[in-house]
Amino acid sequence: MRKAVKWLARIVVVLVLAAAAVGLWKRDQITRLWAVNSLFDEGRIVQNFSHMDRAFLSVPVPRGTGPVSPLPAGPAMTLPAVATDWITARNVTSLMVLHRGAVVHESYHLGTAPEDRRISWSMAKSFLSALFGVIVAEGQIESLDDPVTRYAPSLTGSAYDGATIRNVLLMMSGVAFNEDYLDYESDINRMGRVLALGGTMDGFAAGLTARDADPGARWKYVSIDTHILAMVLRGATGRSLPDLLSEKIIQPLGFESEPYYLTDGEGVAFALGGLNVTTRDYARFGLMAANLGRYNGQQVVPEDWMRAATTPTAPTAPGDLQYGFQWWMPADARPGEFFGHGIYGQYIYIDRARDVVIVATSADRAFREPGVKNDNIAVLRQITGAL
Q1: pLDDT band at 28, cuts 50/70/90?
Q2: N or C: the chain end with fewer CB closer than 10 Å?
Q3: What is the distance between the alpha carbons of residues 86 and 62, in angstroms, rounded to a whole number?
């Protein structure tokens, strides 16, 4: 009996040591998974959104060695009362308003600071759209009507087989993808766990096989479509997304801080929402977009691409927000009114006719409540109207 107890004790010790060894070996993955599962917790979300590199693998997007482009100060504006109430109600973390190219309001909230590099979420899609326009103009992608498999052959046999680049730019791939952030088993949350555990985004995308519709048949917002566009860019150029974005967009805009991308386990950038940028540098990108690709005397993105990208061409439902090449427009958009938008209340809002650019970042856990998106646009319009 004693012998059996001794052997049992030895087995328990071995199991405990093995568990400890596995825990140490997988410590980083376990830590990231825990961080992902608590990313949006009420007491953590604000700081998490300013420090995403603590929860995920990341890679820098070099700003280069060039000078920082100026953001001149203009006469300070008085925000309308609705805006000050909105800042509190929607957990706004930063707000910057530019009129005629000058900063007329800049404020930071909830303990955040100007140097914080804030998660873009889906505003990153608009950055990728701008980059795509440059690569198309350079002739490295022959046609938007090419199949995505021409540049990303690993997608052959997936739900993306047969979709064109144009289909994917307009969110008309037809791929079945559940984007409910509140559903633990949704595709978007499964994708988050792939990132946290060091899996591969390319493999995740190639593993999608279900379709809701034929490519080009109807519009449905599917975030993974943007990763497909990044795969196309990498396949067409043989270069990484951070390298391309740095050379073609970030360096010409003269960013003051080095952005970073969240990455998967192979160092591949999380193109659809993993870009982290300061508020002031989001504003520089917004000014470039407002000037149809021109910034600081240089045509950074072709004007014809910016016009096409910010024209509502996707067949969204009547009365809904409109969509172009990874840019949004209000349902009743005025000429030259468009915006980049990310979940939890991230906006780069542009009104070209009024020469206004507004950057707002938030940690709004109630962002999915009915009417919030339209209310946010209404407030941004009222800020514009107060100038």
Answers
A1: low
A2: N
A3: 34
